[in-house]
User: Which sequence fits this backbone?
C-alpha cells in the first residue's frame, strides 16, 4: 500500500512539474507577442453616430511578428490598428499589417500632408517595391454635438464623418508626399520629362483621386524613372 502511495505521489509531482513548465513556456510566448500589443480599452464614444472605420469588417493577418494569425481592422479616427477583443497594435515602422488576401497593407510611416504638414501614422499601400509607390490615407473626424440655442433648433448628436481619401506618392523610397491638386504641379516634379507626363495624364484622363488611375500611373512612371 505504501509503495502504491509513493508511486501516486511521484506521478502527481511529475504532472505538476510538467504543467508548471508548460505554463511558463506559454507565458514567455504570450509576453513575446503582447510586447507588440497595447491593452488600451477599445475606444467607444457614447451617443456618437456613424463609424470610426472605413470598413467595419475584420481582416485576417498573418505576420512573422506574431506567433499566430489574428483578426484586425484599421480605426481611421484614432489612426490605430485594432485587434479583435484584445486592444491595439503598438505603432512600429518595422511592422507591416497585411491582410491574408492582400487587399489591406498598412504601414506606419512619416509622410508630408496638406500644407507641408509632416505627420507619422498609418497609410494603406496600393503600390510598393517600385520606383513610384502609391499610398492612401483613410481619415475620419468626429463632429461635435450641436445643442439647440432656441426652441426652433434641433439637437444633433456627435457624429463620425468620413473624409475624402487622400493619395500619396513616393519616388525612389524618399519622403512620402500628398499628390498635388493641380496636374501641372505634379509634372514639374519630373525635370526633363514634363511633356511625356503631361501627354500621359491628358490622354488617359488620369485622376489623382482614383485608385486604378494611380496604379496605372505608377506602372507608366516606372518606365521613366
Assistant:
Amino acid at each position: 500500500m505504501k509503495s502504491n502511495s509513493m508511486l501516486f505521489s511521484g506521478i502527481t509531482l511529475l504532472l505538476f512539474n510538467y504543467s508548471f513548465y508548460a505554463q511558463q513556456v506559454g507565458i514567455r510566448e504570450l509576453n513575446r507577442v503582447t510586447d507588440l500589443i497595447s491593452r488600451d480599452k477599445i475606444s467607444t464614444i457614447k451617443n456618437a453616430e456613424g463609424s470610426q472605420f472605413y470598413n467595419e469588417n475584420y481582416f485576417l493577418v498573418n505576420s512573422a511578428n506574431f506567433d499566430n494569425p489574428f483578426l484586425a481592422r484599421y480605426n481611421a479616427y484614432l489612426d490605430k490598428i485594432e485587434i479583435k477583443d484584445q486592444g491595439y497594435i503598438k505603432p512600429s515602422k518595422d511592422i507591416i499589417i497585411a491582410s491574408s488576401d492582400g487587399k489591406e497593407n498598412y504601414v506606419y510611416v512619416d509622410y508630408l500632408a496638406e500644407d507641408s504638414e509632416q505627420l507619422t501614422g498609418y497609410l494603406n499601400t496600393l503600390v510598393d517595391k517600385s520606383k513610384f509607390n502609391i499610398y492612401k490615407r483613410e481619415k475620419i473626424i468626429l463632429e461635435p454635438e450641436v445643442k439647440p440655442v432656441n426652441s426652433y433648433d434641433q439637437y444633433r448628436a456627435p457624429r463620425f464623418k468620413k473624409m475624402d481619401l487622400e493619395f500619396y506618392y513616393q519616388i525612389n523610397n524618399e519622403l512620402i508626399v500628398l499628390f498635388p491638386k493641380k496636374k501641372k504641379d505634379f509634372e514639374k516634379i519630373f525635370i526633363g520629362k514634363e511633356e511625356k507626363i503631361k501627354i500621359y495624364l491628358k490622354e488617359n484622363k488620369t485622376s489623382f483621386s482614383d485608385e486604378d488611375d494611380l496604379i496605372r500611373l505608377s506602372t507608366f512612371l516606372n518606365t521613366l524613372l
